[in-house]
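Cross-posting from the chemistry board since nobody answered there.

I work mostly on the small-molecule side, so proteins are not my area. We synthesized zinc ion and want a rough idea of how it might sit in this target. Sequence and SMILES are below. Is it possible to get a predicted 3D structure of the two together?
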Amino acid sequence: MTSTITHIVLFKYRPDITWHDFEAHFASFTGLQRKCLHPRTGKPYMLSMRMGKNRSWEPFSKGMTHGFVLEFASQDDLDYYLTEDPVHLAFSQAAGPLIEDSLVVDIRDGILFGPKAERPIGADETKGSCHCGRVVWAVKLENKEHVLCHCDTCKKLGGGPYSCNQIVPKEDLKILEGELNTYTYKGASGKDVRCFYCGNCTSHVYHHQDAMPDKVIVRTLLLDGGSDMTAGGEIFPEGRLKWVRDLADSLQDGLVNGEKR
Ligand SMILES: [Zn+2]
Ligand SMILES: [Zn+2]
């Protein structure tokens, strides 16, 4: 039998919160146990919830003023609560401005060794991985399309006729596992561009340009389902290789794996 997961949350609230804000916040927090419904059963799935103000006289609270102890039947249920449950997500969004600092620990009673739980890929995210598998990431894409770049740098770095990308806000890319090496070069703008790649297998994960500091350029062909994504646009079209223009047509009569079609 697998034991339940206890989700322990400590909050330090902002000092300028009004009583009205506090009351509304605690009322909606308390309501989560009843309102958060399991996607399959449609029934409440939070097994228990305890909350209260810190009353410890010891000097170890690190400024945390309130504690919340929530119990879930499984990691899957907790993952759903954290990443997808619309009721909890709406609550979190409303609570965000009230909270100055927080501390979160999840435990399984009696389990004292072993790895952390794997961060789930959110419903609005796509998972990516490098060739060797050491680096894993998640990215939010507004639409699942490649933007082809025909610039000379992409040809040199990738060894192909073009690269497949999408530009996303920096915070929409999360590196979940592994470490990235960096290669810095001067972009067309004259400013630095950093290429982040797996130090083991050299797969390019993303680029960051000083010319657009809040965005990153992710390599979309390394994403799960990347081969099924369509090409939705292109940049530096003047660099497009002649035979790329009509690739499907020009290959009609060509050889496949050295043999006639
Ligand atoms: Zn790798
Ligand atoms: Zn390029």
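Reply from a structural biologist on the board:
Welcome over. Reading the output above for you: The helical segments are 19-35, 75-83, 86-95, 152-158, 242-245, 247-250. Residues 130-132, 134-135, 198, 200-201, 203 surround zinc ion (ligand 1) (CB under 6 Å). Happy to explain the token format if needed.
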